[in-house]
């Protein structure tokens, strides 16, 4: 089925041919393609790298179409391209309802849009869609690098709209874009300060992998794998001085259940299902709990994590956000972290005080069989200690210290159901989880309630010498496991690692530098540890990132209120409302002025402006231009009336005609008389000075 259009026959799925004034040219298409590349670059760190292929193929097809080597892309080709992108994303993520897959599909459609971009209207649609895809990049990251790159990409997209609107050259589009973005800057800053703070639009559920390396269950050697990574876990900024290195035990959760191989959490839901009782018996929801006076006050900048855990320096006591305070000292947020988030905490710096009878019984449980030598060894140590739990722990510490135990990131693999025996009496090599899990097993075998705590130990100090070091950067290689034992009516922290590798406690994880496997996955970033200049640069950058997150991304209603109080001494809601209304009124007023000014009869052509100045001068002598008289005709008429200036006026008529009427097509190039636009301006000024 075909239908005629002039002398060209086209099928039903083919679009109507465009006239030259409707079609996009090489300059606009090139600009749109570069804009697509800039927007795509913001996603490629998180999206599949093969998404660049549809962009390249669509651009190649479109530019070949300009050269009349391929036909315009039909609907079947475009649908097939979209289906291929969707199939690739399905194979990449395993489902299409995942947020990353949906973002990838949006990016793919944006890139393939170039296939059907022929008219000026299509170009505007591509630019508009580019802004949407650009905004979705903040679902991945809201850091300063992403913000700077987004501003660059947004400026390029605005330049594309300016080109489509009629800009003749790239330089003209660049100037107009800078002017528009400069006008919008005060409005952006004003809205940022005045507009009431709302939750970020990108705070939506995600199914990405956790950045925290800790998991719900741990077996000996699991945490050792985290020593291969230098990824940031979180940052902490203290209200006062930093705690001593030996006190920086950041607890994340406790592990109380042991099946002979792995330790796992006894979550509140699991406990309530097994033991019954009200939910408040296992967790309290609110902004704080009773647990003594706080020893540390600090602010955490948390990395994204789909799990709800929040690290705390000892037992958490209060926070600026509602959370769940578990009876074992674990702090859980009310939702997962899909972006970086700020959290203010106060904590005791010590293990939690609560230890009900059911918890003590839970922390005595062991499998009925297995590890017989370890059980006998625990009973023997308890007998030597005279039944004193503190004496038992002292003897166990001395055993680890005196025997040839070795602290290593690459321990031999342990298998079977007697792994505690194999480590304690045979291999004698392990990481913190080996020593912690063995200690908990021995303590329980001796009748002492004990549990393993997983978290982080240490942190790299940040801050300037003038203000004092008040910040810590905690990384994945700081992951650690230690023990809490119950005796004397309260929980006590016991770290067997201190008996084998005391430098790990005093100096942090960097004391492991040089061991096989340490920071093996860090790549080139590992060199920053050995280079003082690179290490200082990294610290400065991390401090800048922290302040960006705290002051820009984390700018909440409390900070907004504090800013108003510093500026005006008092905060009132009605002032904020009037401030927003005043800002919008100023924007409307400035816009109205610009619209009215743009309606005036003005021109930017230098030749027209120069002629008008001369015409006003001649008008004072009664020789002004007549209605509808062209500049050249006017000056030649005046030359006939002024014999003394006839030569100069005739030359001026030639210059102004060449300057005005030839400049549009040949500005910046040489003309027939060998004069450029700049030389014409100089020649015009010299002739005007000669007029009597």
From TrEMBL:
<feature type="transmembrane region" description="Helical">
    <location>
        <begin position="575"/>
        <end position="597"/>
    </location>
</feature>
<dbReference type="InterPro" id="IPR021878">
    <property type="entry name" value="TgpA_N"/>
</dbReference>
<keyword id="KW-0812">Transmembrane</keyword>
<dbReference type="InterPro" id="IPR038765">
    <property type="entry name" value="Papain-like_cys_pep_sf"/>
</dbReference>
<dbReference type="InterPro" id="IPR025403">
    <property type="entry name" value="TgpA-like_C"/>
</dbReference>
<feature type="transmembrane region" description="Helical">
    <location>
        <begin position="33"/>
        <end position="61"/>
    </location>
</feature>
<feature type="transmembrane region" description="Helical">
    <location>
        <begin position="177"/>
        <end position="195"/>
    </location>
</feature>
<feature type="transmembrane region" description="Helical">
    <location>
        <begin position="73"/>
        <end position="91"/>
    </location>
</feature>
<dbReference type="Pfam" id="PF11992">
    <property type="entry name" value="TgpA_N"/>
</dbReference>
<dbReference type="InterPro" id="IPR052901">
    <property type="entry name" value="Bact_TGase-like"/>
</dbReference>
<dbReference type="Pfam" id="PF01841">
    <property type="entry name" value="Transglut_core"/>
</dbReference>
<feature type="domain" description="Transglutaminase-like">
    <location>
        <begin position="424"/>
        <end position="498"/>
    </location>
</feature>
<keyword id="KW-0472">Membrane</keyword>
<keyword id="KW-1133">Transmembrane helix</keyword>
<protein>
    <submittedName>
        <fullName>DUF3488 and transglutaminase-like domain-containing protein</fullName>
    </submittedName>
</protein>
<dbReference type="Pfam" id="PF13559">
    <property type="entry name" value="DUF4129"/>
</dbReference>
<feature type="transmembrane region" description="Helical">
    <location>
        <begin position="145"/>
        <end position="165"/>
    </location>
</feature>
<dbReference type="InterPro" id="IPR002931">
    <property type="entry name" value="Transglutaminase-like"/>
</dbReference>
């Amino acid at each position: 089925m075909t239908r005629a259009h002039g002398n060209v026959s086209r099928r039903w799925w083919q679009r109507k041919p465009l006239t030259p004034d409707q079609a996009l040219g090489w300059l606009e298409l090139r600009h749109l393609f570069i804009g697509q590349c800039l927007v795509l670059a913001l996603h490629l760190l998180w999206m599949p790298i093969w998404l660049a292929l549809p962009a390249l193929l669509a651009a190649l097809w479109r530019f070949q179409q300009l050269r009349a080597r391929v036909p315009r892309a039909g609907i079947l080709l475009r649908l097939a391209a979209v289906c291929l992108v969707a199939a690739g994303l399905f194979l990449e993520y395993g489902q299409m309802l995942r947020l990353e897959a949906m973002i990838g599909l949006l990016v793919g459609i944006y890139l393939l849009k170039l296939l059907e971009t022929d008219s000026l209207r299509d170009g505007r649609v591509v630019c508009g869609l580019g802004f949407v895809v650009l905004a979705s990049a903040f679902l991945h990251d809201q850091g300063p690098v992403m913000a700077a790159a987004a501003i660059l990409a947004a400026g390029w997209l605005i330049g594309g709209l300016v080109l489509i609107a009629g800009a003749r050259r790239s330089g003209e589009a660049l100037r107009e874009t800078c002017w528009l973005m400069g006008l919008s800057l005060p409005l952006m800053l004003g809205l940022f300060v005045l507009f009431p703070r709302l939750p970020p639009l990108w705070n939506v559920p995600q199914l990405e992998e956790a950045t925290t390396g800790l998991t719900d269950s741990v077996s000996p050697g699991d945490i050792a794998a985290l020593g291969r990574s230098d990824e940031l876990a979180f940052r902490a900024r203290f209200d006062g001085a930093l705690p001593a290195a030996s006190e920086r035990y950041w607890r994340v959760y406790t592990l109380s259940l042991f099946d002979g191989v792995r330790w796992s959490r006894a979550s509140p839901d699991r406990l309530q299902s097994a033991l019954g009782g009200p939910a408040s018996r296992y967790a309290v929801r609110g902004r704080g709990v009773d647990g003594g006076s706080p020893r540390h006050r600090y602010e955490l900048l948390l990395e994204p994590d789909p799990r709800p855990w929040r690290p705390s320096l000892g037992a958490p006591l209060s926070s600026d956000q509602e959370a769940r305070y578990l009876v074992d000292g674990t702090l859980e947020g009310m939702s997962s972290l899909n972006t970086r988030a700020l959290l203010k905490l106060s904590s005791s710096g010590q293990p939690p005080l609560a230890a009900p009878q059911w918890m003590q019984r839970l922390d005595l449980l062991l499998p009925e069989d297995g590890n017989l030598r370890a059980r006998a060894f625990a009973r023997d140590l308890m007998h030597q200690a005279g039944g004193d739990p503190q004496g038992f722990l002292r003897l166990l510490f001395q055993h680890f210290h005196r025997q040839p135990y070795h602290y290593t990131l690459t321990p031999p693999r342990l298998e079977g159901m007697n792994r505690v025996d194999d480590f304690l009496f045979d291999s004698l090599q392990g990481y913190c989880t080996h020593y912690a899990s063995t200690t908990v097993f021995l303590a329980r075998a001796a009748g002492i309630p004990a549990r393993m705590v997983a978290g982080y130990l240490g942190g790299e100090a940040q801050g300037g010498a003038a203000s004092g070091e008040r910040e810590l950067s905690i990384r994945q290689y700081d992951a650690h496991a230690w023990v809490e034992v119950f005796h004397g009516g309260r929980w006590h922290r016991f770290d067997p690692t201190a008996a084998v590798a005391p430098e790990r406690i005093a100096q942090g994880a960097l004391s492991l530098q040089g061991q096989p496997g340490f920071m093996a996955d860090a790549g080139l970033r590992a060199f920053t540890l050995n280079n003082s200049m690179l290490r200082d640069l990294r610290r400065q950058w991390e401090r800048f990132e922290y302040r960006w997150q705290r002051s820009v991304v984390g700018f909440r209603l409390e900070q907004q209120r504090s800013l108003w109080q510093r500026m005006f001494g008092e905060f009132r809601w009605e002032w904020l409302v009037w401030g927003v209304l005043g800002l919008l009124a100023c924007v409307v007023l400035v816009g109205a002025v610009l619209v009215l000014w743009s309606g005036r009869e003005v021109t930017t052509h230098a030749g027209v402006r120069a002629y008008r100045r001369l015409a006003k001068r001649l008008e004072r002598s009664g020789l002004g231009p007549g209605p509808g008289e062209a500049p050249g005709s006017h000056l030649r008429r005046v030359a006939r009336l002024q014999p003394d200036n006839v030569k100069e006026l005739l030359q001026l008529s030639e210059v102004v005609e060449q300057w005005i009427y030839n400049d549009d097509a040949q500005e910046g190039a040489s003309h027939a008389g060998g004069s450029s636009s700049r030389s014409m301006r100089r020649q015009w000024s010299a002739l005007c000075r000669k007029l009597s």
